[in-house]
Amino acid sequence: MYFAGQHAIITGGSSGIGKAVAKLLAKEGMHISIIARSKTKLEAATNEIKKVRVKTTQQVLALSVDVAEGIQVKQAINTFIDQIGSVDLLITSAGIAHPGYFQDLEFEIFERTMAVNYFGTLYAIKAVLGFMEQKRQGHIVLISSAAGLTGIYGYTPYCPSKFALRGLAESLRGELKLFGIDLSIVYPPDTDTPQLEQENKTKPLETKAITGSAGIWSAHDVAYEIVKGIKKKSFAITPGWEITLLSYFHSVLFSCLGWYADRLVAKVRKENEEKVESNDQSY
Ligand SMILES: NC(=O)c1ccc[n+]([C@@H]2O[C@H](COP(=O)([O-])OP(=O)(O)OC[C@H]3O[C@@H](n4cnc5c(N)ncnc54)[C@H](OP(=O)(O)O)[C@@H]3O)[C@@H](O)[C@H]2O)c1
Fold first, then answer.
1. Fold annotation for 7-250
2. Does the pLDDT of residue 1 top 50, yes or no?
């Protein structure tokens, strides 16, 4: 087996896509280390991952860390490596999203989103790099988003953080290749996870109309595509044909998508205004 006996470190491994990938890799015989903030969720995820491992000798470790704190990330990764051994696979899945209208969102949301989604990824990569360089082997997998391929109405804090990951991946890939380290970037579609549930609380109606047409994947199915992509050493991992098309043609498609999104926005706004007017009249 490609993965058996190897060590995977997964940020955001206590929930959603990160946890689903952790479980698939545990089923492949890997040692698993996960990072997230909530100790309760980490403990529950650790138990779930242990249940699906193929050998009881496979270690499953968890540490509560905020990925936006570079020193904490480095210390946690060093601890995992001290206890399990060098790292073979890093998956950076920790992420947050807070959609809303640009003018309503405080600076703090933009700064925090970039700190977690972009710098949280960068710190983890920096922390594993020395170990992978030494072995001249390893694989780093960044979890971006479909929102890292095209700007989406209502996602002004999130899209730039996921675009930034694409810029990082595309510029870093060649440097890592010289050390025998592979790099992949994943563009998941909407996936049924606690993050999506949280997003829906602040998502503008227009954003719901734009993203709603694409359908929702399960975390397991996205994780399956990720593991398949890692095995094939694909640079861009694009679950589903829509995301695959978008990843090939996003610049060409952007003007068409923009036109389509503007029409949807106008339609939703008109319907909403009519609803408000009819509610006013009924009083
Ligand atoms: N769900 C989707 O529709 C979708 C689509 C495209 C891309 N993605 C991306 O996929 C990744 C995983 O998202 P998900 O949907 O699986 O969300 P999720 O179920 O909410 O999982 C997010 C994970 O990240 C951790 N996390 C969040 N902030 C953190 C921080 N500051 N430090 C350390 N850990 C942190 C969370 O644990 P704690 O909260 O306990 O820290 C949790 O383990 C994210 O990068 C997301 O942007 C998701």
1. Rossmann fold (3.40.50)
2. no
